[in-house]
Amino acid sequence: MVELKHRGVNIKTIAAYTRRGIYKNKLHNYIRKTQQFNVDSMMDLCGIGLNRKLGRFYETTTSKLLEFLLFRYIILCSILFVNDKNILKYIKSTKPNLVVVDHRTMNASYLHKSAVKRFIDIILRRNNNSMNNVLFRILKQARMCGIPIFMIPHGLQPMSKSSLGVVTNINNPFRPDYLVICSKNDVEYCRSLYVNASGLKDTYILGDAKFDARWMKYVRSCVLDMYDFNDVKDNKILLYFTDVYHYKEKIEIHKDIISLVNKYDDLEIWITHHPRHRKLIPIKDFVDDNKLNRVKQILYATDSDYLIEKADICITTISGFFVTSILQKKPSIVYNKWKEYLGPTETIYDGRKLTVNTKSELDHMMDKVIDGEWLKTDDINEFHNRIFSVDADHHMLDDYVDKMLEKMEA
């Protein structure tokens, strides 16, 4: 969006469900304010002035009770009032030339589900189909107005799509005009998600703009402006990205990684939990008493770019956030022991020399990293080419912007 704005494009963003998520994310809000982006919310599409006022109140309230109640009211409003009539009115008032949305799938049968059942689904967090339903209705009206749909990757998925094969028996109603894919390895899988998408005009392999070198440099400059990095660190920081998967042996993975703090006198471990799996790890079971104060568990929303900037070493089992640390040339260890329990699934991290499979290999790799040997073994360009199909110095962001401008001007 920043690059498009610099090229004279007027950007209109719709936040789902409200702007609160953007306001709470310090980095996103900083970019929004410095770049002066206009952000609407689902409540702006409701067509009712009171709902828009309540939506703005929700975005700033500090009351937990009001936040709880208003969020559920907002969900209900999005189901009842973000209808074809109000969406069409919004589209005609904003007059977009292109609609950009991330990859979306849902079963078409959900389109016929009652409003009450959709409300219950999202309150109980059964699935994300209620939000997809709202987005589908917006895209449907845009298509009826002749506005092209440009669908881009939601984010880099660590599970290699080439190993997932073709998706069959999917009744996905989403219909992009132009489908953007990260890598040539993802083509077969991603196209199969939209096999029933009549009107798909073209597919483009453009990498992922979030990992463009120029964009990452800009984000890093924002992080350095926002936070104080002048404090002197007494210890090295190992940043542990947990994954979202549930399996009973996961505690053994935690133990292998977190207990590293017992081995080194100058090491701290920061654990950043996956947003959908924020649960304290019982570190007292495997961390020495005198080292407990050197382990920090981060359960609340924190900018991953800030955490990576603070870290000296990064480690994960399988997290998409980890790509940033690799491309920023941080020593980044992948611990593949989870494959013993979940199976030998192929991931985008396979083949890197900083990948280990056992506790003894992990200990040995940590010794090498601490001694500074990791730079001799990590090939950033090979990794970048494998997951994005272009070299690390290629400007993926320019490819995205040029292609969007081409479709807007067509």
Tell me the fraction of residues in β-strands, as a range. 5-15%
Largest sheet: 6 strands, parallel
CA-based shape: globular
Radius of gyration: 23 Å
Rounded mean pLDDT score? 85
Domain count, please report it: 2
Ends apart, CA distance between termini: 20 Å
Helical content band = 40-55%
How many DSSP H or I helices? 17
Number of strands: 12
Structural class: alpha/beta
H/E element sequence: HEHHEHHHEHHEEHEHEHEEHEHEHEHHH
pLDDT < 50 stretches: none
What is the spatial order of strands in the main beta sheet?
9-8-7-10-11-12
Description of the molecule:
This protein folds into two domains: 2-213 and 396-409, no CATH class; 227-388, 3-Layer(aba) Sandwich (Rossmann fold), CATH 3.40.50. Helix 4 (49-60) runs antiparallel to helix 5. It is α/β, with parallel strands linked by helices and 410 residues long. It is built from 17 helices and twelve strands. The radius of gyration is 23 Å and the shape is globular. It has helices at 2-6, 20-24, 26-35, 49-60, 64-81, 84-94, 115-123, 129-144, 187-193, 213-226, 250-258, 304-310, 322-327, 339-342, 359-370, 380-388, 396-409, and strands at residues 12-15, 38-41, 99-102, 149-152, 178-181, 202-205, 236-241, 267-272, 295-298, 313-316, 332-335, 355-356. A six-stranded parallel β-sheet has the order 9-8-7-10-11-12, with helices on both faces.
